[in-house]
Each structure stands twice: as structure tokens, then as C-alpha cells.
Amino acid sequence: MLSVKDKELIRDSWESLGKNKAPHGVVMFSRLFELDPELLSLFNYSTNCGSKQDCLSSPEFLDHVTKVMLVIDAAVSHLDDLHSLEEFLLNLGKKHQAVGVSTQSFAVVGEALLYMLQCSLGQAYTAPLRQAWLNMYSIVVSAMSRGWAKNGKDKAD
Ligand code: HEM
């Protein structure tokens, strides 16, 4: 559950970041590949993501960066009724299971998200703000992970 204070911290901090999704998303994914370079190989686009630089200059990869930022944007817009995103997030988890992304990798994306927030917000990046974002991201990822697990199970049955 998100507290009233969590929601306020998230909304206020996203206000300017959300207007510039692409560059902030690039900072986030750049960090993701530092944390786990093996994730590069999961982006099998026509412009191959052989290296971080290749990936960051691939239009399809940059589309994915924007897609991730739009999911975050949707979560921020639905802080009062995150459960309304449940079906969408379950499906998103299923799709990621199908393309070989592990649920542990969602957690690494979370670390990269916090890094991006820290870089962008500077002194406004406080412990309560970090915790508020972690709380929100955990809700998103837990729904994605339920969809992920369900897809794996459906395939095994
Ligand atoms: C290491 C983590 C991740 C990897 C390797 C990954 C990889 C992929 C791949 C290969 C696709 C299919 C091709 C494409 O649409 O570009 C995809 C689709 C997508 N991903 Fe991710 N992804 C990751 C994490 C996330 C996260 C955390 C989110 C959102 C919070 C997200 C949002 C999306 C969306 C919205 C799509 C499009 C789904 C659709 O076509 O309906 N991804 N991802």
C-alpha cells in the first residue's frame, strides 16, 4: 500500500521527469547494462544489441525505453487505483516471460530506476522519496511477476 505521503513524493518528483521520458529512460537503461551487461543479449532487434552503445542507438531499443517509461507514467497516473492496471501488468509479465526476461531482472531495472531518480533529482532524492518509489515499483513488478509465473505454468501444463 502506498501512503498519502508516498503518493505526493512520487507525483511531485515525476512532474518534470515525466515530461522528458526518453533521456531519463536512457540514463536508466545505461545504468541497467552497467549493473548486468548480460541483459543486452535479451534485446534481439534487427539492429543487434551487441554492445551497450549499439543498443542505445537502436531505434527499436529506444522504443522499448519509451515503453518502460510509459508504464511508469501510467502507474504514477493511477496511484490511487493501481489495481486498475492489474490485467495490463499481468499480460506484460507474460510477454516478458515469453521473451526470456527473468523476474530478477525486473529488480535490476528497479535499481536502475532509483539511480536515474538520484541523478535527476539531486538533493530532492531523499530516503522517504527513494522508499516511496520502491513501494510503487514493487507493486508494478509484483503484478508483472504474477503474470510471468502464470505464463510459465500455463506452458508447463
Ligand atoms: C531487463 C529487463 C527487461 C528486458 C530485457 C525487456 C525486454 C523486452 C522485450 C525483448 C520486449 C519485446 C520487444 C519490444 O516490444 O521491444 C519487451 C516489451 C515490452 N516491455 Fe520490456 N523488458 C524489460 C523490462 C521491462 C519493464 C520493467 C517494463 C515496464 C515496467 C517493460 C515494458 C515493456 C513493454 C510495455 C513492452 C511492450 C509489450 C507489448 O508489446 O505489448 N519492460 N521488453
UniProtKB/TrEMBL annotation:
The keyword Heme applies. Keywords: Cytoplasm, Heme, Iron, Metal-binding, Mitochondrion, Oxidoreductase, Oxygen transport, Transport. It is found in: Cytoplasm, Cytosol; Mitochondrion matrix. PANTHER family: BLR2807 PROTEIN (PTHR46458), NEUROGLOBIN (PTHR46458:SF19). Transmembrane segments: none annotated. Monomeric globin with a bis-histidyl six-coordinate heme-iron atom through which it can bind dioxygen, carbon monoxide and nitric oxide. Could help transport oxygen and increase its availability to the metabolically active neuronal tissues, though its low quantity in tissues as well as its high affinity for dioxygen, which may limit its oxygen-releasing ability, argue against it. The ferrous/deoxygenated form exhibits a nitrite reductase activity and it could produce nitric oxide which in turn inhibits cellular respiration in response to hypoxia. Pfam families: Globin. GO terms for biological process: response to hypoxia. Residues 1-149 form the Globin domain. GO terms for cellular component: cytosol; mitochondrial matrix. InterPro entries: Globin, Globin-like_OT, Globin-like_sf, Globin/Proto. This is Nitrite reductase. It comes from the Eukaryota.
